[in-house]
Amino acid sequence: MQIELRHMKGEDINSLQPKELIAIEEALQNGQTNLREKMMDHWKMHRRNEKMLEEEHKLLVLRMHQQEVELSGGMREMDLGYQQSRDLAAQMPFTFRVQPSHPNLQEDK
Known about the structure:
By secondary structure, the protein is mostly helical. It contains three helices and no strands.
């Protein structure tokens, strides 16, 4: 058994016959083929998991955005307290009020 293992490692192959060398070569090629197949399966599984995680991430981002919209909509209604009887300018947030930053130069004094 140890002799065969040494042959597989490439040690003491000078004393082997061509038929024995061919058998070792085939065994090494089969091992290499099996290793490549396992690596390819692992890579495919990794890609599949990666795609699943990307889809899950997209879904979570969408849900988070929807919740933010729902919360901001509810907060906006609470903050502004929309009432029919009040003045619209008073209900409008400060950022939407337009105030000139420069005097109108076209007006006559």
